[in-house]
Write a structure and sequence with these properties.
The chain has one domain (about 10-115): Roll (Nuclear Transport Factor 2, Chain: A). Helices cover about 25% and strands about 45% of the residues. It has 3 helices and 6 strands; from the N terminus they run H-H-E-E-H-E-E-E-E. A 6-stranded mixed beta sheet has the order 2-1-6-5-4-3. The chain is globular. The protein starts with 8 loop residues before the first helix and ends with a strand.
Length: about 120
């Protein structure tokens, strides 16, 4: 059963740090769009994950990996949120992520992620 917890900085932090993909997925609107910009997906061709079903698969993959997640900073202003996140794989590889979120009716409608990792 999906949670109905409101999307807040603290609820997002808790779900990310606990690798709780089910709760993370519940924060998104049915037609949400997640855009990911990184080395493999440049700004002119970002990866787009459309709809809660696809976003659920995305979070299932991320949360299923053996890695740690730590949300450092989160801010919110009305229907806008942003956070930074540090991740680490067991081999020491680190990932840094910055994300902005647009909320509509209490759900994430649009998210843009910019990430970089050790190579």
């Amino acid at each position: 059963m999906l949670t109905t917890e409101a999307v807040t900085g603290s609820s997002l932090k808790k779900a990310i740090e606990n690798r709780d993909g089910r709760t993370l997925s519940s924060f998104y609107a049915d037609d949400a769009l997640m855009r990911i910009i990184d080395r493999n997906n440049p700004p002119s061709r970002p990866r787009e994950v459309q709809g809660r079903e696809a976003i659920t698969a995305f979070w299932d993959d991320i949360c299923g990996r053996a890695m740690t997640h730590e949300v450092d900073t989160s801010i919110s202003d009305g229907n806008l949120m942003a956070f930074t996140e540090n991740c680490a794989y067991p081999d020491g590889t680190k990932v840094f992520c910055m994300a902005t979120l647009e909320l509509k009716d209490g759900k994430i409608a649009r998210q843009t992620v910019v990430q970089a990792w050790d190579e």
